[in-house]
Amino acid sequence: MINASWPELTLEKRMALMSIPAQGIIPVVIDSDTYNEIDDQMAIAWAYLHPERIDLQAVYAAPFTNHFFGKENSHTYVENPAQGMSLSEEEIHRVFEKLPHRHALPGIFKGATRYLTESDTPECSPAVADLISRARKASQTLQVLCIAAPTNIASALLFAPDIIEKIHVIWLGGNSYDWCDNQEFNLMQDVAASRVLFDSGVALTQIPCFGVTNCMATSVPEMQFYFANSSRIGDYFAEIAPRCPWIGFASRKVIWDITTVGYVLNSTWYTCEYHPAPLINDDLRWSFDNRRHLIRVVKFIERDNLFKDLFRKIIDADKD
After folding, report:
1. Which residues of 31-46 are buried (b: 16+ CB within 10 A; e: fewer)?
2. Cβ distance 242 to 223 under 8 Å?
3. Low-confidence residues in the chain, pLDDT < 50
4. How far is 19 from 119, CA to CA, in rounded Å?
5. Which of 155, 197, 200 is CA-nearest to residue 174?
6. Three-state DSSP class for residue 106
């Protein structure tokens, strides 16, 4: 375990950091393994297309690997986290090339080239440096949407523990606490970084994958029906929708990552509970200690509310 001297938040301070104002514009950064699937691209585009609610200030490219799925089960076989991060940075630029530029574009920053699990020392990537600087300058809570292995976020917390006073992390990661296992992509890629999220005491909203977010399903025909010939970004999504080889006949595709954006847009679409921050065992299963600090955990999502807003924004992206 990599240790740091993190500030201890009072319960009042923690709740204040986790509270998203019902009105007004919210400062947001997104940490994303964008090239891995199609849901990251949708999350980034959706956030950018809501400038009246979300001030998307930066997008960070996160490392990812998918070699453990086998070459036949990935649209691009990635066995090195640096390659995954570079592919993601390129994909972030592609997304913004296809979006209308009616307001300022966010900064785009390269993230870690290796997992925290693979080293005793975090990597101060451009993404980490930007997050630290941006958090320290923030005049209101910075919402950090993490839709990847949390390597960049954990590294920032290790380099600059003081940013705990300024940020709220919304992480799509791990499975629900009563799911049969915890073999979840974002968590298992970088277990050390995942532990930092739960052990540091940072204000954290966890959106579990299986058992919660797997309700966020659509299909290739549905995406192509709505998105094709609608907007430049819609056409792109219709084009890349079938590229993931595991989406076969009569299969659904879970659009996991939009849940973090949806929570900022309208938290009433979510049912949540507060739990002591869990511990991640060496076999990746959860353990619990009621003496630990509280985090917010999403239990249920109003799926249709998110998809209706997302699809409308994508379809109308090029309209004045």
Report:
1. bbbbbbbbbbbbbbbb
2. no
3. 1
4. 34
5. 197
6. coil
What DSSP line would sit under 38-59, residue for residue? SHHHHHHHHHHT-TTTEEEEEE
Q: What is the Cα 28 distance to its own chain's centre? A: 11
Residue type, 227: F
| pLDDT tens-digit series, residues 154-195 | 999 999 999 999 999 999 999 999 999 999 999 999 999 999
Tell me the CA end-to-end span of the chain in Å, nearest whole number: 51
At 66 the pLDDT is 86
pLDDT digits (tens, 9 = 90+) for 246-268: 677 788 899 999 999 999 999 99
Return the pLDDT at 246: 66
The residue type of 50 is: H
C-alpha 273/C-alpha 290 separation (Å) is 14
The SS3 of residue 318 is coil
3-state secondary structure of 274: strand
Predicted local confidence at residue 1, as pLDDT = 47
Beta bridge partners of 279: 287
Chain centroid offset of residue 127 CA: 14
Q: What is the pTM of this model?
A: 0.96
Which token pair is 234? 């819609």
In angstroms, the Cα distances linking 175 to 64, 230, 260, 277 are 18, 35, 15, 14
Q: Which of 215, 183, 194, 120 is nearest to 151 (CA)?
A: 194
Helix, strand, or coil (residue 103): coil
Q: Which residues touch 78 (CB under 8 Å, ≥6 apart)?
A: 36, 64, 65, 66, 67, 84, 87
Query: What confidence score (pLDDT) does residue 243 get?
Result: 83
Dihedrals φ, ψ of 109, to 5°? -130, 140
Distance CA(177)–CA(59), nearest Å, equals 29
Place of tokens 């089960």: 73
